[in-house]
KTSC domain-containing protein (Mucilaginibacter aquariorum), 67 residues
Amino acid sequence: MPSAVIAAYDYDADTETLTVRYRSGKVYNYLQVPEKVYKEMRATMAKGIFLNKNIKGKYPFVDVTPT
């Protein structure tokens, strides 16, 4: 999953939470993300573009970056 922006990501289907760790070190939990959207993200080659178009600004998020 090479991405210029995303270092890693994970999804919890029980809570519909998409966790994204950015290469900058920031970690965000995107909330209420349907599993279908996560699966579409997983299937695309352009993860950062998908994130910007389909997740950012559409789902609430919490900054959970470790201090």
Observations:
- The chain has a mean pLDDT of 95.
- The radius of gyration is 11 Å.
- The longest strand covers residues 6-12.
- Strands lie at 6-12, 17-22, 27-30, 61-63.
